[in-house]
Structures are given as structure tokens and as C-alpha cells.
Write a structure and sequence with these properties.
The protein is mainly alpha-helical. Helices cover about 50% and strands about 5% of the residues. It is elongated and about 125 Å long. The model is unreliable at about 350-390 and about 425-440 (pLDDT under 50).
Length: about 450
């Protein structure tokens, strides 16, 4: 009896093993069948893929000739003169050239064995300049004769080329002679008769509005004051952003004694940073005169922002790219802003330095290489070594400027005093000299 049970159990086990083997073979065949059908479906989709549209690329030379024969100008479309465009093209050509072999291969069909006409460096530069100028991506695709995806690729290539080009770097004056030359040029546009000699540049923050960014913390980019999203975290004020500019900070710290920047009251008064009088100090007529004359220089940074946003009209609307790309757009526009000014020899000075030297308003001083103007701030100036705090030195320099304004008998124009209630403080409560800026 026990033997029969053992034989029966062995028979059942053998049958179960055979069933498992059959099931294994079945699953293996089923897996191969699924892979075969997936491969067949992919091949079918690939074979039925619609060919790329044969875009008619714009001919750059014909485009240039069109503006010669019409009332429109090349600059009105591409936001710089033809000669400046050629200089920029020469600098960037290598970095904005696409692989023509890959471009043709990706658009090859039976009807077009050589593919579409490749995108040239001129197309990339045209797209980039007109994109910064405010044209939409759809408009650029239609005008240049490329796909929307190619427009994005051209823009990215253009922005990367601008950012990586050493010839377009924003450079600060590095030598003493260069710094004094800039000081002389600032003195030439001031009506303070040399009282602000030592002013080497204006500084301010600029609000760049963007659409709500796609990032883990979009609320950080919302400015509660301006009620919009901005390219930097909304709580990053001018002074805080200034403290993060390490290269600029290092350059400012190394300025020669008596040379300083000018900013508004968001910045701290130091030996290298002059600011307007604010609060109760503004009630003094001489301090209001200082604010007026100081605003004539400080307003130049506002003018620079105006020139920037007028030429590159993409900033007239909210930027709608990623946070990283928005930053690249701003850097590209700033670099090209300086490049255009240098290439086209733009000069915003209203009074020549030679006229000031002849009139005696600025004193000539012979340096090692050239004759510069040293004005009235070269002698007995307080330095950082004379005081423990840079703000104390800054206060002394500002007080000295005020004294010199008083000694020269300088006052605000009558129309400015009448505009501001005969010298009474304005009611806006900001205390930053803005009411004088509007009258300059």
C-alpha cells in the first residue's frame, strides 16, 4: 500500500514538471512575439513619418539689398548698423555655424536627396538680433524660413556664443590712466564746475519682469512691491544684489583715493560710494543743490537702461523663458549694448574736456603717460586709512563737495526750485532726489 502511494506521488510530480516546462516555453514564445510586434510597429511608424517641410530660407544678401532700395533701414530691423553687423558676424561666425552635413541628412527625402538648404551663420545671427529686438518666435520662423524648433536652436546658439565670446566681455577700466580718463569724461558732462571730480560711474538696480517661472520655488521671484515676477528673487534689493557682485566689489575697493561711484539711497555712503542727502538733511538748500547736481550724473544710469530697453525691445514685455535663459538674454543684451556703443563710436558727452581745461574749470595735471584733469579733489583728501569706517570717509568727501558747491556759489536753476515749491521738500517721502532728476 505504501509503495503504491509513493508511485502515485512520483507520477504526479513528473506531470507537474512537464506542465511547468510547457508553461515556460509558452511564456518565452509569447515574449518573442511581443518584441517582434513592437519592432514591426516601430518600423511601420518610421516608414509612414511625414517628410520635413521644405522651408524657403531667406537670402541674407537679398535681404540687405532690400533695405538699400527701400525707405526702411537695416538698423530698424536688426537694431544695429550694417557695418556693426559685419563686425559682430566676424566675431561670432565660428561659434554660430551649424553642421551642414547633419542638417541636410535630417531633411533628406526621395524628392529632395540633398535635403533642405542648411541654416547659415547669417540666419542664426538674424534670428538672435531680431529676437532681442522683440520679434516673436513664430514671426522669426516665417521671416527666416525655418521651423519653430530651429528658431529655438538658433536662439540658444546665439546666446551661448555671446556669453562665451571674450571679445564681448564687459570690462572695467583697470589702469590708473583709464580710470582718470573716465573721471575726466564724467567731469565734462557735469555742470558742477569740477566739484564732483572723482566721479567715475553711476550704479543702480534694474527691474526685469518675467512670467511666473517654472521652478520649485516660484513665489521667491515675486516682488510684492512691484506686483510682478522678476528675474531675481523678489526680496533681493539693490544693495543686496550689489554685495553679491564680487568682481565689481573688488574693483571698487581698489579704486584710487578720491575716486567714487554714485548711487541712490539704496546704497551705503562710503569713500567709494556717494549718495544723495535724504530725510531732514534735504531741507538744507545747499544739500538740495548737491542732490540736483549729483542727479545730473546719476541719471546717466537711468538713461543707459532706457537705451538698453529701447534697442532690445524684448524687455518691453515679460520674459517668458526659463530662469537660466532669462539671465542669458539679459547678459547678451548688456554685452551687445556696450559693443554697439564702441563699434559705432557713440559719444554722449555734451561738453568737451578741452573746453573745460581752457576755461580753467578743471586743472591740468601731467601724469607719466598723458595729461589728465584732476579737478579740485586731488589735495588733502581723506582716505580709508584716515578713518576707521569707510562711511566716515564718505561723509567727509560728501561734505567737502557741498562746501565746494557753496564756495562756487552754485544753485539750482530757478525753474527747478519753482517746480518743487520753492525748495520745499516733496511729498513723495522717498528722500532720494528723484524730484530733481526729472528737471535735468
Amino acid at each position: 500500500m505504501d509503495r503504491q502511494k509513493r508511485d502515485l506521488l512520483s507520477l504526479l510530480l513528473e506531470e507537474e514538471e512537464e506542465d511547468l516546462e510547457i508553461i515556460g516555453h509558452f511564456l518565452s514564445d509569447l515574449q518573442l512575439l511581443i518584441k517582434h510586434r513592437q519592432k514591426k510597429r516601430r518600423n511601420l511608424v518610421k516608414q509612414t513619418r511625414a517628410p520635413k517641410f521644405a522651408h524657403q530660407r531667406i537670402d541674407f544678401e537679398a535681404e540687405r539689398q532690400k533695405y538699400v532700395e527701400s525707405s526702411e533701414t537695416f538698423e530698424s530691423r536688426y537694431h544695429l548698423k550694417e557695418e556693426t553687423y559685419d563686425k559682430l558676424f566676424e566675431i561670432l561666425e565660428k561659434d554660430i555655424t551649424f553642421d551642414t552635413t547633419r542638417s541636410r541628412a535630417s531633411t533628406t527625402t526621395a524628392e529632395r536627396p540633398n535635403g533642405n538648404t542648411p541654416i547659415t551663420p547669417h540666419h542664426v545671427l538674424m534670428v538672435g538680433l531680431r529676437f532681442l529686438g522683440g520679434d516673436s518666435k513664430r514671426t522669426l520662423a516665417d521671416v527666416v524660413g525655418i521651423s519653430s524648433a530651429s528658431v529655438d536652436r538658433c536662439i540658444n546658439t546665439f546666446l551661448e556664443a555671446i556669453e562665451n565670446c571674450r571679445d564681448l566681455d564687459i570690462k572695467l577700466p583697470s589702469t590708473t590712466d583709464e580710470i582718470h580718463r573716465h573721471v575726466d569724461e564724467w567731469t565734462a558732462i557735469s555742470t558742477a564746475r569740477g566739484a564732483f571730480h572723482g566721479f567715475v560711474g553711476a550704479i543702480d538696480g534694474w527691474l526685469c519682469a518675467i512670467n511666473k517661472p517654472t521652478c520649485p520655488n516660484p513665489a521667491d521671484y515675486f516682488s510684492g512691491h512691484y506686483k510682478c515676477f522678476v528675474v531675481a528673487p523678489g526680496k533681493c534689493n539693490d544693495n543686496r544684489a550689489f554685495q553679491r557682485c564680487t568682481t565689481l566689489q573688488r574693483w571698487i575697493y581698489e579704486l584710487p583715493p578720491g575716486v567714487f561711484l554714485g548711487g541712490d539711497n539704496a546704497y551705503t555712503l562710503e569713500d567709494t560710494m556717494m549718495i544723495p542727502f535724504s530725510g531732514s538733511q534735504r531741507q538744507e538748500p545747499i544739500n538740495r543743490t548737491y542732490n540736483f547736481l549729483f542727479s545730473q550724473l546719476r541719471i546717466r544710469i537711468e538713461m543707459a537702461f532706457g537705451l538698453l530697453t529701447t534697442k532690445w525691445r524684448i524687455f518691453r514685455r515679460n520674459l517668458d523663458c526659463s530662469v537660466t535663459k532669462n539671465c542669458m538674454i539679459i547678459k547678451a543684451a548688456a554685452r551687445l549694448h556696450n559693443f554697439v556703443i564702441d563699434a559705432e563710436d557713440v559719444n554722449y558727452r555734451t561738453t568737451s574736456l578741452d573746453d573745460l581745461l581752457r576755461s580753467g574749470q578743471v586743472l591740468a595735471h601731467q601724469t607719466q603717460n598723458t595729461t589728465t584733469a584732476i579737478g579740485y579733489m586731488a589735495n588733502n583728501l581723506p582716505t580709508r586709512d584716515d578713518c576707521r569706517l569707510a562711511s566716515e570717509v564718505g561723509g567727509q568727501i560728501r561734505d567737502r563737495i557741498v562746501s565746494e558747491i557753496a564756495d562756487k556759489g552754485l544753485t539750482r536753476p530757478e525753474h527747478n526750485m519753482n517746480r518743487n515749491n520753492n525748495g520745499a521738500p516733496p511729498t513723495n517721502g522717498r528722500g532720494d532726489g528723484e524730484e530733481t532728476t526729472a528737471a535735468v
